[in-house]
Amino acid sequence: MTARPDIAVVGAGPAGMAAAVAAAEAGAHVMVFDEQPGPGGQIYRAIETPGPAGDAVLGADYAAGRGLSRAFRDSGAEYLPGATVWQVSPDREVGVSVDGRARIIKAGAVIVAGGALERPFPIPGWTLPGVMTAGAAQIALKASGLAAADAVFAGTGPLLYLIVDQYLKAGVPVRAVLETTPWSAYLGALPRLPGALLRAGKLRQGLGYIRAIRDAGVPVIRGVSGLAVAGDGRAERVAYTHGGHRHEIAAEHVFVHQGVVPNVNLTRSIGCRHDWDPAQACWRVATDAWGATDVAGIFAAGDGAHVGGAEAARLGGQLAALGALCTIGRIDAAVRNNRGAPIQHALAWELRPRPFLDALYRPAAADRVPAGDDVVVCRCEEVTAGEVRATAALGCLGPNQLKSFCRAGMGPCQGRLCALTVTELLAEATGRPPDAVGDFRRRPPVKPLRLAELAALEPDDTDGGDAGP
Ligand SMILES: Cc1cc2nc3c(=O)[nH]c(=O)nc-3n(C[C@H](O)[C@H](O)[C@H](O)COP(=O)(O)OP(=O)(O)OC[C@H]3O[C@@H](n4cnc5c(N)ncnc54)[C@H](O)[C@@H]3O)c2cc1C
User: Is beta strand 93-98 parallel, antiparallel or unpaired with respect to 101-106?
Assistant: First the structure.
């Protein structure tokens, strides 16, 4: 492992790979860290090692990642798979563990391209064995060709339909799709339709998935609310309200999904400014047009900065590379602006359908903030919505104080899974907007790190080079 790169990139998804290619092409020494065994990120997971679920199952959008991963491999960027980044300091020191050995590497600039997470879906029974996210089901399919027959898929968002379509193409029967998109969302999205129609191909692709699912004879039940999974020690049935009546379907596997949100743990722990995004109901790191955060030399790109999909992530990665190259003095602002202009144009075009999609697939408030007090919110510490509400009634001011009262957000995931629910629950309970309630404070290590690795850090493992802004 070489220390003191010009640019360190966290994440080898579309954003990280594209950033690395662009920065390396400009002659910068680039190091890319990703905890996965191969490049690709979420969409192109296992792109170099196709499993039993090949391109025919995963589709053309998946196969398109092969060109980017080849360009990445050929770029000359130094790539470290299996490398978990547990810290990035405001002065650009990257703490990373590879093969059980921790190192701290100082970079001239850092591009955080850590991607998105699936939004929590806190419903009764979501912690039962047999219930997992649809994205997790897709990971099993992409990485190992594993799939569960006769699962019920429930929730909202384009990814839900894509994954059901992939399941069907893999020949795996699906029992039903329970769509939780509220009817009001269709009306709310309507005024934004004209902008999205400029990219009609994208919309047709989504409609194509829905048609294929219906053609396969899978019941698609729209306007579902009140989802709840029940069973004796594991999922056995899923209940829901539709047309004013309660219904139930037997299911051993229930795959839930209501969109993806930026994973902000790393950018939060660096101390970058974050804002509440009311359209996507999530936190996002504040950046300029080049992905620069308000911390000098720290950039953010891809879905980790703003959820826009794989192509937007690729373009965002290229822009962040130009921003970082300019910051470390490899190119001047005129070159950056010149090279960046067509990329910014392409990004704006790519994002045209977003306002429509964000409005249509913004999950219902009742699916983001559980009505029932006994629903588990923080899975690590098993804290319920009722405990959070009771703590708010005692006068708790925000998520960080909540930790001392009931330990919500103090488990190994550091609030990755519960932070949004906690913020919105406290906002509801205290009558304040989410940005006034705030978020959990995240601190390094943002990923579990063995004490032995930390203790074994030697002074020369920490490279104090002073390259950078
Ligand atoms: C579960 C899931 C499945 C998805 N599937 C699809 C799909 O099939 N099709 C689609 O169009 N979109 C999919 N998406 C949306 C997807 O986020 C984008 O399309 C695209 O992958 C975003 O690219 P990215 O480079 O920003 O992030 P990602 O592709 O998510 O890449 C981020 C990379 O950063 C790495 N990383 C994160 N934190 C660290 C750390 N601390 N240390 C080391 N490495 C780290 C991760 O291992 C990952 O490889 C999915 C999203 C999720 C959450």
Answer: antiparallel
Domains in the chain: boundaries: 7-117+261-331, 120-258, 369-437
- Domain boundaries 120-258, CATH class: alpha beta
Nearest residue (by CA) to ligand 1, atom 12, is 43
- Tokens standing for 204? 């047709």
Nearest CA to ligand 1 atom 39: 114
How would residue 60 be classed by pLDDT, with cut points 50, 70 and 90? confident
pLDDT, tens digit, 9 for 90 and up, residues 260-269: 999 999 999 9
pLDDT in tens, 131-162: 999 999 999 998 888 999 999 999 999 999 99
Q: Are the C-beta atoms of 77 and 23 separated by less than 8 Å?
A: yes
DSSP letter, residue 21: H
Distance 47 CA to ligand 1 centre (A): 13
The total number of residues shown for the chain amounts to: 469
CA of 274 from ligand 1 middle (Å) equals 20
Q: Record the pTM.
A: 0.95
CATH of 7-117+261-331, one of 3.90.215.10, 3.40.50.10800, 3.50.50.60, 3.30.420.40: 3.50.50.60
